[in-house]
Amino acid sequence: MGRPDPEEGQLPTPVKPPDGGWGWIVLFGCFVITGFSYAFPKAVSVYFKELMKDFHVGYSDTAWISSIMLAMLYGTGPVCSIMVNQFGCRPVMLIGGLLASAGMILASFTTNIIELYLTAGVLTGLGMALNFQPSLIMLGTYFDKRRPLANGLAAAGSPVFLSSLSPLGQVLLEKFGWRGGFLIMGGLLLNCCTCGAVMRPLDMGMKQKMGKAQDKYEAKEMLPIGGKSEEGISTTDGTKKAKKAKKKPKKGKKLLDFSIFSNRGFIIYTISKFILVLGLFVPPILLVNYAKDTGVPDTEAAFLLSIIGFIDIFARPACGMVAGLKWVRPHVAYLFSFSMLFNGLTDICSARASNYTGLVIFCVFFGISYGMVGALQFEVLMAIVGSQKFSSAIGLVLLIEAFAVLIGPPSAGRLVDALKNYEVIFYLAGSEVVLSALFLAVASYCCLNRGKKKEPPSENHPSAGGGSDTEEAESDLQEAEEHSSDNHQPAHSTDNAIVTANEEANHVAEEQSGEGGGCPTGDGEVLARDGSNADQMVERDSF
């Protein structure tokens, strides 16, 4: 991303993802950003007891710090989309890293809990949100065929950082107190700026440079050799300069593309994801207290979360590799549905676990299914909307998920206080996850697959379910090669400039034929091909 405005208000030519090279550096940056974004709100909980003592507040008051961080991460999705579409990924990530670090540094000097909400909660949460979403967008631009594996590896940052930041926070708390710990944590968050700096946008200007270098060669090929050729070149150059001087006002960019709501696959995904988030985070939040109520010691109860995190580390990359297989990737939405079904059934079957062995078994299967969901959630969204609209899609999806996050876990906590029974909560959470899985699978089959069978295939009709970017990138690459071989015209030039250049070339050719020189067959064919390509570009731009 981070792209400048092209001339004449035209969109830049899509570049085929390299699926490697510098993309691995981008992947590592996304791994770090994902780790900080998901693990940091949970890791700061080790400071809560000290904050309760210093500020004389309750546990629920300090818990709002993590809640505000997560609310900012999810709720500011559209804001991040607008900033990315306007300024690009790299500048937004650099600003986000500075905000996240500044929030924790300022939090170390606070004197009351309200100031903590504004600094560690709002400011740091906003900074992490400005890093998380652009990193996923950049990952989608650098990977296509290996994108499922890349998403799985990047998602593994969450359990890795959770298993490391929590012990680190405890050590910092014991040696430097909560203020010193916040200060050092703020310094660690500056690594987000480093990750943002490596998010180098793909070279969108390579084809423009090649087109300008071959401009005169194009005119020589199209026109007869002689003085008329030079005249045609000068006429074409003069026409282009005149067009640049009188160029039309630039078309405004769409800061947030709401046209994705016309995609049935996106609507199905959003509804199923909302239902999923209502119950997905409830079991790990209540697991430790549930284990303590069944008589499990505190240390062993806390170790249950470590089991989930350890299994999660390996489950996400493994699921990404499976999703990248040729015979699996076209059906990745159904694999995502299976992972949600697996997670929901795990909650339901383990609701009556009454001993530590049963809880350990639950944690193993929950870690596997939870890792599968984490590895596939954004891969499915990329497959549905494509990389070009992913920046707007993820912002809107995160905003909708924010409401589910604010509804699900708090409602479960109130039910526990009212019923004093964790079994009902596990049944309810598992049922919500199962419902989301069934909805995604049935709706995708009925609304998308049947629609594809009824509608005749056409080149300009996008599938309702989206699909992988591989075919889209290959078709764009083929069209770019045709344009470069036939008319050697830059992709960013306007349709009027193309038509004008062809008219000038035909005019010179007609003068030459009038003098008795005739027009060679090859030149006529070139002109015909140029005209057809101009029509194709007009049709593609209008589409």
Q: How would you summarize what this structure contains?
A:
Residues 452-543 are annotated as: Disordered. The protein has 543 residues and is an all-alpha fold. It has helices at 23-43, 48-55, 59-75, 77-87, 89-107, 113-142, 147-155, 157-188, 191-197, 206-213, 215-222, 227-245, 264-280, 282-293, 298-323, 332-349, 356-385, 390-419, 422-454, 469-486, 495-514, 521-542.
Description:
It is a single chain. This protein is an all-alpha fold. It has two domains: 205 residues, MFS general substrate transporter like domains (Growth Hormone, Chain: A, Up-down Bundle), CATH 1.20.1250.20; 195 residues, Growth Hormone, Chain: A (Up-down Bundle), CATH 1.20.1250. It is built from 22 helices and no strands. The longest helix is centred in the last third of the chain and has 33 residues. It is found in: Cell membrane. GO terms for molecular function: monocarboxylic acid transmembrane transporter activity; symporter activity. Belongs to the major facilitator superfamily. Monocarboxylate porter (TC 2.A.1.13) family. Keywords: Cell membrane, Membrane, Symport, Transmembrane, Transmembrane helix, Transport.
